[in-house]
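Obj: model holo form, ligand = pyridoxal-5'-phosphate.
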Amino acid sequence: MEKAYESFGISRAVYEKGEALLQGLEDIFRSIDRRAEYNQLKVLAAMKKHGVADYHLNSSTGYGHNDGGRDTLEQVYAEVFGAEDALVRPQISCGTNALYLALSANLRPGDELYSPVGRPYDTLEAVIGIRPTVGSLAEQRISYRETDLLTDGSFDYDAIAKAINDKTALVTIQRSRGYSARPSFSPKAMGELIAFIKKIKPDLPVMVDNCYGEFTDYTEPTEHGADLIVGSLIKNPGGGMAASGGYIAGRKDLVERCACRLTAPGLGKDVGASLGLNASLYQGFFLAPGVVAGALKGAVFAAAYYESLGFAVYPGVEDPRNDIIQSVALQTPENLLAFCAGIQQAAPVDSFVKPVPSDMPGYEDPVIMAAGTFIQGSSIELSADGPLRPPYRVYYQGGLSWQHAKIGVLSSVQKLVDEGMTL
Ligand SMILES: *Cc1c(COP(=O)(O)O)cnc(C)c1O
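Output (holo C-alpha cells):
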C-alpha cells in the first residue's frame, strides 16, 4: 500500500499519519454505515413497492407521453422522501433552477417570501432579486424578508413570530450551510421550526432547500412537516450517475404547480421526455445512500486530518452532520491553492489541470475550484472550492467512493507538505 501511494506522489509519512487518525474514527464511520444501510433499505423497499421493472429503464422522446419509467421514478422519490408527490426531471438544469421553479410556481404578485434562517445560498440572491437581476422574483412584485439566526446559530423565535405577516406566502429554509458561517440543520430541528411557524399561520407552506442534505440522516425534512423539498441530481440523490436534473417533492398541489410552471398549465407532469436518462436516474438514486456515506467519511477524515495539523475545521470531527460539506480555514492563499491542486491531482478526469482563482459572476472575491468530474460540475464527486479572502476557507465535498475521498484528502495534505508545511 505504502509503495502504491508513493508512486502516486503521496509520501509514507502523510499516509501513515492518516492511518493513525483513522483508528480514532471507527465509531463515527460505523454510525455513518448504519445510516446508509437504513437509507439503502428505504430506497430498495420503495423500488419494490412501486414495481420498478426492466421496461421502466427505457427511454422516451418528443412529448414523452406515457413515460412510465419517468412517472414511476417520481413515485419512488416521493415514497423515499415521505412525500405525496414528486417532480424528478432532467429538464431541471441544476439546483438553482429547481429552487426558482418551486418559488416562482408557488408565489404570486403581492406575495412575500420569508427566510427564518438568514440569507440563502448565493445564487438565490439573484433569483429573489436581493441583487437586482433580470427575471427575479422582485421583478414579479414578490417581496422578500429574512430573519438572521441568533449568534449561537439557533432560531430567533421572537423575531420570526413578528416577521410573519398577512403577505407571507411561502417560507424557505436552507438545510445546508452553503458558503455561510452558520450551522446546517437536521430534519428534526427544522421540524421544530416548521411546527412553530404553522402555529402562527397554519396554512403557510414551508419549502426546504435540501441541496447536499439528502441521505445524511435517517429522515428527510418532508417527514418533519416540510411541504416541499428541493434539490439537485448532480449532488447527493443522483448518486454520481445522473447526467442532469433536479427534483421537487412534497404536497401534491404544490408539486403540481411546479410541474405546470416547468411545462405549461394544462400539461403539468404529462409531458417531458426522459431522453435515455431513466436508467441512470434510477441507478444513481439506488446508489446514493452508499455514495453519500463515502462522502461523509471523506468529510470526517478531512476534518480529523486538518484539525491535527492545527487548522480550524467546521463542522468539527465529532459534530453531527446534515450535509456533505467540510470547511477548513487554511489561513493563507498559498494553502488554499495547494489544497485545491491536491484535490485536482487526485481526480479521475483532468488530473493534469492546475486550478487557478478567477472572478465568478455573483461572487465578490476571486474563487478557486477543483473538480475533475465525470459529470460537469458534479459536487457529489470529489471537489473543493473557496473564495480568496481571509481566513481562506476551503469547502471540500464529495467522492464517489470512500476510498477516492480518502486519496483526495491525502493528496491535498501532500500538496501542503510540498509547499513547506510540517506534519
Ligand atoms: C448547490 C446548492 C444550490 C444550487 O446550486 P446549483 O449550483 O444551481 O445546483 C442551492 N442551495 C444550496 C444549499 C446548494 O448547496
